[in-house]
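hiii, so i know i said id send this last week but things got crazy w the move. better late than never?? heres the sequnce for the chain we talked about at the cafe, plus the structure i predicted for it. fair warning i was half asleep when i ran it
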Amino acid sequence: MHYFETEFIKYKNNELFIENVKASDLIKEFGTPLYVYSKNHFISQYKKFEQAFSEINHQIFYAMKSNFNLSVINTFVQLGSGIDVNSEGELFRALKTGISPSKIILTGVGKTREEIRLGIEKKVMMIKAESEEEVELINRIAAGMNVTAPVALRVNPDVDAKTHPYISTGLSKNKFGIDSSAALSIYKRRNEFKNIQFTGIDMHIGSQIASIEPFVEAISKLSELYFELRDEGLDLIHFDVGGGIGVQYNNEKSFTIEEFAEKTIPLFKKLSCKILFEPGRFLTANGGVLISEVLYNKQNGNKKFIIVDAAMNDLLRPTIYQAYHHIQPLQQHNERVDIVADIVGPVCETGDYFARDREITKTHSGEYLAIMSAGAYGMTMSSNYNGRRRPPEIIVDRDNIFVSRSRETFEHLLWDEKII
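okay and structure toks below
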């Protein structure tokens, strides 16, 4: 089998290390399943993004839906990042880091009245509206509060991002955003919305996009709308590209952030406004590992299974997206043969798997596997299905180990629950 390594998560003397810490030492202290994050991977990815776009006026807003661990959010806040929040709960978490609300964007296709009111009350940088009815509601709420709300429209450019259909968001058949003609009409009727100031134009065409072309097409389409609005006398102060930049999970060919910048900066330079980005997966995915113990090996006919103690409730992506996560042993055994097996969890669902028909080095009960690229959409999508406790989250910073979240207790699962 081949091994997946990054600058900060790699093998030394046949043992997997997260930065300078041996993964097997973490197991002795914290058990499994176990999420481990490399802080310096997060920092490195952020700095690469910043450097790539250093020649233009821009701002990064970390999309915390990818990983909403408070310490992870705070890592980006300390680097100067803004935060993209998608709900009242995410806003609550973001504010716990001490970030100024003026560096928060409130997004979401179905914001409630309470979320809109809270966003206005906290004075977030802007609220991203995704329908005409939402614009009208924001205007009414702001009028009732006797304030002017900063609003940007998320425009759906009808561009195929060529990604998994569940994470494609830029086509007209997707639920997200407002089509260009409707958006133009709303912007032109801005005087009707006396308690709204339109500050920008926004897009987000999908997630895990492996080609630059859909971005170029979408930016070009929205630029036409931007120029038309400028001719109409509306000077927007920002142009938001959203996120969606793909990362490597296996051997798929993607593009570098430098290549992305090279292709898009000429387009941005034509716009006389600040360019905003909302990366999530790009910053966190390959900085995380989910470590799991091998419970059993078994064979049904010709089919081999490796049963581990992590499950779909810990990492849901393979179940709902058929997403690929590379899986490899914590300790390399080069003398062992490779087998083809399904790697599955203990939950009572056939969909509880991490890999199917995967080539992997033969493992024994009591050994450990690392499920790679688990830093994005891992813990944020976890649950307590089958009464399972969610795992701890450990952050490694060079030689230092921080417990950002301990393993849930069974008492956590019963909090505020009563028998009647």
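btw DSSP finds twelve helices and 21 strands in the chain. thought thatd interest u
miss u guys!!
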